[in-house]
Amino acid sequence: MGPSRWLRVVVDFSTDPAQIVTAFAERRDPQGCKPLSVTIDNLTFDHVDYDAGADVLYLHIGDPSTAVDFDSTPEGHALRFNAAGEIVGITLVGPRHLLDRDGKLEITLPHHVDVGAGTLDQALATASKVC
Predict the structure, then answer these.
(1) How far is residue 32 from each of residues 1, 28, 29, 35, measured CA to CA in Å?
(2) Parallel, antiparallel, or unpaired for β 38-40 and 43-45?
(3) Reported pTM
(4) Exposure string (b/e) for 20-41, b if CB count within 10 Å is 16 or more?
(5) Of the candidates 122, 29, 130, 112, which has an alpha carbon nearest to the alpha carbon of residue 74?
(6) Which of 5-9, 63-67, 84-88, 101-105 has the lowest mean pLDDT?
């Protein structure tokens, strides 16, 4: 039996019509799977999930339910924050496309960060595979 998958969707009901702010998958892998982590700037994300069909990489620090606020970056990615205002999650939109096209991915956290292919290659190659 493969991993179970859940999709969490954050909707902003303060607008009319309501808008999806972000959505991210949560995967529960079978025991024995090697955890994968990704470090961007000084943030190490220990929950990594890549949706290859949509080319979206979901990164989170600790339990994804700790996110209470959301914002988008100028580059079109999504940031998730805990109650203290610290970044606890990032949704990277089109990382494979951007790395193939530009050799890097840019994100503002709130300062500008260039993420090289070497940082995300393992996550893009293995995060969506079943152990």
Answers:
(1) 14, 12, 8, 9
(2) antiparallel
(3) 0.70
(4) ebbbbbbbebeeeeeebebebe
(5) 112
(6) 5-9
